[in-house]
Structure formats: C-alpha cells, structure tokens
Prior knowledge:
676 residues, Beta-galactosidase, Chain A, domain 5, 3 domains, TIM Barrel
Amino acid sequence: MKPMRLLTAVAALSFAMPAAAQTAAGASSPDGSISVTLTTDGDGRPVYTVSRKGQAILNQSRLGFLFTDVPKLDRHLQIIGQESSEFDQTWQQPWGEWQTIRNRYRELKVHLKETTALARVFTVTFRIYDDGVGFRYEFPDQPNLRQTNIAEELTEFAFASDGTAWWKPAFLWNREEYLYNRTALSAVGTADTPVTIKLADGTHVALHEAALVDYSGMAVARTEGNTLRAQLTPGAGRPKVTKSGAWTTPWRTLIIADGAPGIYMSRLMLNLNEPNKLGDVSWFKPGKFVGVWWNMIKGEWSWARGPKHGATNVHVKQYIDFAAANGIPGVLVEGWNVGWDGDWFGNGNDMDFAKPTEDFDADMLAAYAKKKGVRLIGHHETGGSASHYEAQFDKAFKFAADHGEMVVKTGYVTDAGQIERVDPDGTRLREWHEGQWMSNHFVRVAEAAAKYHVAFDSHEPIKGTGLQRTYPNWVAREGSRGMEYNAWGGKNPPEHEANLVFTRMLEGPMDFTPGVLSLKGQNDSDILSTEAKQLALYVVLYSPVVMAADTPENYAKYPRSFKFIRDVPTDWQDTRVLNGEVGDYVTIARKVRGGEDWYVGAVGDEQERSDSFDLSFLTPGKKYRAEIYRDGDDADYRTDKRHSVVYEKRVLTSSDKLTLRIAPGGGFAIRLVPIK
C-alpha cells in the first residue's frame, strides 16, 4: 500500500476562535472537471451546488436538520472558515472486482455557525473526485447540541435539469424487494437509493450514500420540480436518529459520468469507507456453492421438519457429493436447525443456531464434507428477531466455525418495520431493516462473526454502502428481487438484470443466486430468460460467493452450459464495463485474480439486439482461445427455444472486435484463455 500523501493543506480552524463571516467556499476535483460551492442565502441558509465540465448538475440545494426537541438547524448560519487538502492513496482489496484501487480526491471542509444565541456549529466536508462527490455533516461535541434527536435531514439534491430516473419505492412492506420504475426525474416518488438518473444532456448520475454506520438509511422524496430531499428511515422512537457528543452522518454520494458504464466503474463509494478494521482475512476464500435451497423455494421441500424436510442427512450428502465431483467448494443448507416448525415468519424466537434437528447430523456431515474437500455454509434465519439472534452470537458463530463453515447466510424475513428489538430492561420494540438500530446490528454481526473467522451473506439486508471495505467478512447481501422471485408468480421481467447493474449493483456484491438452467420455477412455470443468459449472470452480477442455484438433476441435463458455471471464478483482478444502457443491456469483462484468463458476460432486455465490442482489454500480442456460449439464432425467452445455445471456439487477440446476437431475454458468456 502506498502511504498517504497530503499534498496541500490549510491549517484547521477552531470553532472557538472568532472569525469574520465568509460568503462562499468552493473546490474542484483533482482533474478540475467537477466543482462544488457552498454559500449562504439571504436568510443564512447554507446551499451547495455541483457542476461538471462547466455544466450545472445540482442547482442551489439546501442543507440542514429538523430535531424532535430543539429548534431546527437550517438558517441564520454563516461560514466562519474553510480548509482544503488533497489525498492520493492506492490500496488493495482482499477480494473484489478490482484488486487495486486508487483513492484520489480534493477535500473541502466548510465550517458554519449560527448567528443566534444557540450558536451551534458544524462542518460540511466534501470529497471531490474526478467521477463524483461525497459529502457529510460533522458535528463537534457542544453544549447546545450534546444530545441530538434528529427528526429529519433537510439535505436537498436540486437537479439542474429533468431527465430519466430509475428508482424503486421506499418504506413499503416488502423492504428492498421491488422492481425498478423508469420515469421522468420530475415524477419520482419516495425512492430507495441508489437512484440512477440520465440527465437531459446524457450525463448519468447515481445518488446514494456511503459508510452507513450508527445512522438511519437515507431514501429520497421529490419535493418540487427536479428536487429530491433526504427521507431518513424511521426508528422505534420519535427521533429517526439519536446521537451524542461528536458525530458525523454517512456520506451522501453523487457518482457522475458521461454514460452508464462510467457510473458502474466508479470506486467512489468504497473509497469513502474506512479501511479494513478486521486485519488479516485471508481465511475467507471466495467461491461458488450449491445448496439445499431451490427445491424449498419451489415448495417441493420444506424448511420445517416432516416428510418434506430438505435439510436431511441424505439430501445434504447428495449435495456434498455433487459439489465435490464438480470442484464447487461450498454447500448451503437451510432449515438444519431447531425453530423452523410452525409460523416463523416475523417470529424467530424459537430459532436455535447451535441445535440441529434430529435428521441433520452436523458433526457427521461436517466431517464428510471436509473429507470431500467441501465446506458447509450455514444459515441463520432470524425471522426478524434480531435481539434473539444477538443473544446467540457467540454460540452461533462458534458452532459454525467448529463445523468448518467459513460463510453463514443470515436472514431477516419479516415485513418492513417489524424487526423485533428487545432492550436490556425487557422492553420490546419494532424497528425497520434500515433504521439506526439495525445499521448498528449489522456491524455487531460483522464483529461477532469475525471473532470466529466466519464471513456472512445477509438476506433481507440493510442496503449496501461500501462497508465491505471496513468489514471484509461482510461478503454479500441480497435485496432487489433475486432469482427466488423467478420461482413464483410475478416473475422478474427480462430487463431486470440490466437494471440491477446500474442501480442495485452500485451498492456492492449481490447474492442473486443465478444458474437455473432448467428455466423452471414453481409448478413448471417458465423463467423469463434464455439458458445463455443464466451463464452471463455469473459475470455480470458480482459476488465473491455465488450459488449454482439449480439442482444436481437439472445440471445433469445441461452439461455443456454447466461447464461454464464450473469454470467461472468469483474473484477478480480487474473489471471493465464495455458498453451498456440502464435497463437495456450491458457487457462486462473481468480478469481472474491470480491468473490471465478473462471472462465476458452480456445480458439484454426483452428486445433482440446485436452487441458489438472490442477486445482491447486483452494483453497485446497474445492469442486467446475464446470459449463462447451464446444465444442460438432462434433463441427467445417467449418460446420453447429458450434453451437454444450455440457453443463455439475462436482464436482472438486484443485487436479483434466481436459482434454477437442477444436474444429477447438473452445474453452470452465467454471464457478467454491465453494460448501458450
């Protein structure tokens, strides 16, 4: 890792020192393309603007807070000082889409103070990158704001022009599990972030947040025109956020690029998070897994005990054998523990995360898996009873570690706003999945699991905000309608994955559970995909832990396609987005970590299209054997030709260009191996 380089700095200003009021503060990105200003208007309201290449991105946008017990903080403010600095650092991810990441920005700190008797002070800190902006509020400990009860943020994002927005609704019962709307920016309702926007001139902006710790998750709601304003997730009490002493908010982030590929390629969100707090995490190894899961999702097996119980010795040994025979390192088992019988939805207080059912011999199966070179992946479903889970952290993660489980999948299946919290005095409260209490809960999970060298993959999660940098045992999360929705009625439409790449995937790794080659859900219903698209998802939708979600019996029917699933890695040295439009299509190339192979994946929507891209990412002068899995000429998700796949090999170099058909509901996958 290169050491931090502080290139320029202005000495920090003390809030206590007298200072003449300033009218404006500003700074630009290292390359000068993005500029930020902060001023105060005639009422002493702080407003900031953002521009790129001389064009306004955000017009004057207000800042401030409402509190539950003291006057609001948004006017009668003056700028009492500013300071700027530059930062340039290169750091390494232990796993990820890019092995090496450069963190280069210009920082602007603007200090503000009330002119009223309360005289409250705070700082707005901007970090300005060549591809976007992050900013946050920073409050010192002070007599008139020692205990802070936040009712709402007044942070605005007043876009300078209308555009097209891709967004999903916030604060509805099904948490993050909604399809993306495509509307005018001026027609956005109340939306979860990220919200991705294509402005009138074609500039793309992704609005989100980074480093969500000890705070409430931020949604946004349109106020008037093209202005969105922060809407914090509620808590169990009147304040949405409670703070004391000195504190900061998460970073509010704007990734800005010429087109959709640029917003995905940004590392801004990772860079705004704190470095790894866990130390050496080399005990975690990325990889694929199979599991006792899809038959449950389809209703053929059950989580509860009885004649349809899935997590039995017989079934689990079958999956261990299958994984070992195909070089797949993990086997997920759900429903293995006591607590699944009866109505557990929203009530997981009977769950015991160290007590297997009588037909699941954990010791025998762990030993059997180890002998076969396979690890079990545990499952901790809380049913929303988060405090009940916390009370079992030590025994739960010790049980996982004792049985060779390097990864545990956690779950919080209950309606939004129905997480059960139990305080030390026995008071029972109901929390939201993305409220302040739950943001702290997930950090507690990360810390507790790390003690036992266990990683976790959270389902029904809080949104991703780059915390995998700080807690690299938090390896994946669900959210945003993964493959399980294709088992049921109301399936994901063909455009869903092309939406996810430029929206949900900006949050970080997603456990989408791809690879259902049978293309069948419940009651033999058709999944709206071609077979080739299922392969492409392994490249397009990133996660270091990736499921081969279909059953061994179904994979036996599609051996050539299953070969790609066996071959494709889950950890990368480099990633390139070659082309794409939000919700329409995308082509992504990734280079395997520790090797020279490249993989390319592309997915489309319901439209047939011809996808052209060059191979300039390959090493010049080398020849590569391309193993191509593409939609057949007659492939179409709407017909019985959805399984039409062409397998072919070509010799290609960095100077070549490929043009391949993407069928309706289709895609393609390519492995590129250097020829020695």
